[in-house]
Amino acid sequence: VPLAEAGVDRSELVDRARGGDRHAFAELIRASGARLDATARLILRDPELAQDAVQETLIRAWRSLPGLRDPATFDHWLHSLVAHACIDLVRKRRRRVVEVELTPIHFTEALDHAGEVADRDLLDRALARLEPEARAVVVLHFYLDLPLPRVARMLGIPDGTAKSRLHRSLGVLRSSMTIDEVTAPGAAGGPIS
Amino acid sequence: MTMDRSRSARRALPALFEDLAQARTPDYLEAAIERASSRPQRPAWTFLTRWLPMDITTRPAWVPVLPWRQIGVLALLALLIAAMLLAYAGSRQRLPQPFGVAANGQVVYSKGGDIFVRDSLDGATRPLIATPENELADSLSPLGTHLLIIRPVPPANEMLDFFAATIDGRNEVHLGGPYLNVDGIDWSPDQTSIVVAHEVDGLPSITILPTDGSGGRTLDLGMPVNRPAWRPPDGHQLSFRGQVDGNWALFLANPDGSGVVQVPVRRDLMEAPYEVLAPVWSPIGDRIAFHRLVPTPGNGNGNGFRINVAEIDQAGGVSAQRTFEFDSTSDEEMDVQWLPDGKRLVFTRHDQGTDYVSIVEPVAGARSRDVDVSTTSATGEIGMLRTTLVPDGRSIMVHLWADNTDWQVDVESGAAHKVDIGGDDLVFIQRRAP
Fold first, then answer.
1. Does residue A139 sit at the B interface (CB-CB below 8 Å)?
2. A191: closest CA among A102, A124, A91?
3. Residues in chain B within 8 Å Cβ distance of A39
4. pLDDT tens, B43-56?
5. B64 CA to chain A: closest CA distance, Å?
6. How close A137 gets to chain B, by Cα (Å)?
7. DSSP of B122-157, one letter per residue?
8. A165 φ, ψ (degrees, to nearest 5)
9. Handedness of CA B409, B410, B415, B420 (dihedral sign)
10. How close, in Å, is residue B262 to chain A by CA atoms?
């Protein structure tokens, strides 16, 4: 019986995982896994790299859990770990002079409203034009709904840098989406810093 | 004025991201959990911050009794040091008053995780504090002799560690922390303490940190609290926001947390979270200014932030107060500061996606004047600029987050010129004796 169904609350799960309980850790991660994977895919834009980032996140989380002071911050802590894992992966690949392949995110076949599909597609291509560090700010802010000061603290950058990256990224997104709306699909260029 | 289209575009982005991400539990998750949790955890005792109380790390070591000869040498050394200290004290510059107009001193700013200094805005840059750690200059002390440094704690960087150093970057002392969700920092006028708002076991609380590093003391105020500030000119009281029955109100207390009184500022509020936002004392501590959400029929939005100024007596009573609307068409009028002369206010005016810096004397019927620097956000983001005061009161510094540019603005004419700083946070200018 999953611990959550057995009446064990989330902070107790974190406490147990801090104490080395692998089942508690697994349950916590199962609850967050979809969002971790989606966050990594949005930042890295490569499903295989995203898998590596999530794997690295889980290793760091498990190893460092005994040092987590406040169980209530577990989710934010995990999100900051995945953002750091993504950025670290990109930096390692840059050092090896390996291009990060900007593969498009594939949508399911059962797509709904045509307008929403077009918007998603535009956003997808526009995101590809951002550097991963900038994408991390945008994804943490808009996808994980975290306030900018918290995003800044998570990424270890000043509030102003986070605001600045968000502002520039949104400018790039807006102009990319506007340009792509009037040009042929697939015309996405390289990343814009 | 109506809400601009960019705000609705901003609201649409989260939904678009949800669609784009299509979050689903990945096939590899179980195997990844297994791989991760099959490794040993780092032992809890290796996380020193988790287990070590700060007083242990700062407790002086036991010094055994020394032989008389060494004591004699030490006494001579002590005399020598005392003589040097006297000579140093005699040669020290006079200090400014902690509030009001002062002379401009060194320029301090953060860039790339280090702290830099210049002798003047257009002077040559030199590193002030540059360690392998990520450090930010938070503020300079009121007497201009010290610098508050903040270091986010990796890897999550959610907690902040507090340090102080002399303005030359030396004599660094750990003050306290790391603290979670920091929401307000203020130097005491005599700069012997810093008050910090942060979370303690999930409760927004206030801690007083002596600047000699002798350890912090969290006040028991009996409610969630944030935005603490020492009341000028001598810091004999602390003001703070406190939450009672879900509503935030303004309070005064003695610096030891005793004598808490609620300040009865006007409460014709629109929504509970938007009460008494960002309160700031006038330089002599007779008035407090803040912004709050009120009905604003003139801007077409139905409501907006407007600035309130209240005269506060020593017992915490309000002798007069007024909510100002310096331009009825503004979407927001917010984030107010007193200029060093204590007569005028500088604040952010937000209208149709653009942040303006505006200056005004808070008297009945006054209209504010926008200065020559503003910033427009593609998404209607509010607060994309920030103003810091210049001690001589003749100008202000404006930092634009969009491109991290800094502008010096003449207070009288509103004319702005760009200063080549290149930092990635606010610029602080040291206060010196005039």
1. yes
2. A102
3. 21
4. 665 554 444 444 44
5. 36
6. 13
7. TS--EEEE--SS--EEEEE-TTSSEEEEEEEPTTT-
8. -65, -40
9. negative
10. 29
Interface touch A171/B33, C-beta < 8 Å: no
Tens of pLDDT, residues A35-53: 999 999 999 888 888 999 9
| Contact by Cβ (8 Å): B377, B384 | yes
Nearest 10 degrees: CA dihedral of A164, A169, A170, A173? 170
CA angle B181, A17, B151 (to 5 degrees): 30
pTM here is 0.61
Separation of alpha carbons B133 and B84, rounded Å = 34
Looking only at the bridges linking them, the beta strands covering B159-166 and B146-152 are antiparallel
- Cβ atoms of B393 and B384 closer than 8 Å: no
Pairs of CB atoms within 8 A across A/B: 183
B324 strand-pairing partners: B307
Q: How far is B152 from chain A (nearest CA, A)?
A: 7
Asked whether the beta carbons of A65 and A41 are under 8 A apart, the reply is no
Residue B416 to residue B153: CA distance in whole angstroms: 37
Q: Are the beta carbons of A60 and B49 separated by less than 8 Å? A: no
Chain B contact for A70, CB < 8 A?
yes
Locate the chain A residue with the closest alpha carbon to B14. Answer: A142
Question: Is A111 in CB contact (< 8 Å) with chain B?
Answer: no
| Neighbour order of strands in the sheet with B318-324 | B277-281, B287-296, B302-312, B318-324
Dist CA A95 CA A98 (whole Å): 8
